[in-house]
Amino acid sequence: MNSTMKHPSAWIPFTMSCAALALVLVHAAMYGISHESDEGTAAHIFQLLMVAEVPIVAYFAIKWLPQTPKQAIHVLFLQAGAALAAIAAVFFLT
């Protein structure tokens, strides 16, 4: 998995999900959990991060699944787990 994880299309989505998770946690820690009528900047950045990683993950899957299926599946599970962690943080903190 190490050689597959070195490709930018493998680690960039993971990093984007971690950044989205950190954004949610820092925003909740600094401003608390409140229901606003309008979404703030943090919510828009979170949405942009999560949506922007979809084409990168698709590119990774298209390029690396046929070449190294076992390693690519592991990376895809890692990417999905990071994305689900960020989404779960939003779900449980709001």
Strand content: under 5%
Q: Major beta sheet, specifics?
A: none
Helix content: over 70%
Return residue spans where pLDDT drops below 50 for at least 5 consecutive residues.
none
Which helices and strands occur, and which strands form pairs?
Layout (H helix, E strand, L loop, with lengths): L1 H4 L2 H24 L9 H24 L4 H25 L1
Describe the fold and architecture.
This protein is mainly α and 94 residues long. The protein has one domain. Helix content is 82%, strand content 0%. The chain has four helices and no strands. Helix 2 packs parallel to helix 4. The protein is elongated, with a radius of gyration of 15 Å. The protein starts with a helix and ends with a helix. 20% of the residues are buried. The model has no long low-confidence stretch (mean pLDDT 92).
